[in-house]
Amino acid sequence: xxxTYTSANYKNEQGARWCPGCGDxxxxxxxxxxxxxxxxxxxxxxVISGIGCSSRLPYxxxxxxxxxxxxxxxxxATGLKTARPDLMVWQxxxxxxxxxxxxxxxxxxxxRNIDINILLFNNKIYGLxxxxxxxxxxxxxxxxxxxxxxTEDPFIPAExxxxxxxxxxxxxxxxxxxxxxxxxxxxxxxxxxxxxxxLQNCVIFNQGIHSLFTDKETxxxxxxxLVAGEKMIFGKDKNKGLVQDGFTLKAVTxxxxxxxxxxxxxxxxHSENDTVQRELALMDGLNLxxxxxxxxxxxxxxxxxxxxxQVSEIKAKKGFNSLxxxxxxxxxxxxx
Length: 336
Hints:
Number of helices: 11
Distance between the termini: 57 Å
Strand content: 15-25%
Number of strands: 11
Order of helices and strands: HEEHEHHEHEHEHHEEEEHEHH
Strand order of the largest sheet: 2-1-3-4-6-5-11-7
Oligomer: single chain
């Protein structure tokens, strides 16, 4: 008989030590609820993090966990999943930890399609080190390390994912608890590298950075929740939609300028062709609404499965059962 879990099974006795009002609290609680819905036992789950405010999360989980070193969460998570493919592995990184010093590991985890779930907390700032600009900070952003404004263009996480031929990308807001849970569950059930970007608020060093998308007064007209098989409709009155306009997307008002509901596109995150998915992922919430929900979800070979199959095949073919067997049978040794 299958065991049923609740979020309490994934919580430990540690009190979360983040600033009051920090978006990390909501993400932690949502992750624990998502894990309960997926139903993988706590002792078969591992949470790996790097360095940063977000990376404290493993301390508050009743699972295996590892608070690693700066930027190396994806490398550790990859090694763990390869050695123990039976475990469900979650990686927790911030935009600085994951995309600056950890950027190289991030892109190669996606290229390999290792079956890990990457939660990328994006508050566009370095919070733990007290307010320096990060790889996702907007050009001109004033911070402690850029007092006259940054002179750099930011990474767009979605663009990196698609550029690495990523198979799964989803986005949510720290205040959108139901949608965050929805996409975390989808990420866990996806076989392969799954990136979940969560736009998170740092109440101390970058308060309100995502307010256009989180405030009740502006959110409905600047955010679209994408659901597989459903029309791409948004707006306070649900009267706006996305249509194809040549090779690009266009936001229209249904019933005006000749546009009807039939013209509005239906979301297909499972299409191998990522052209529309990429456009959806790159919408910035200004000219076109910011897309949240599962944007891309397609299958592909996974690194840990292919490695496991290759090892089994070579062991059977060569008669190796251990490293010692391999050395003795191949005689490929040398002295130093």
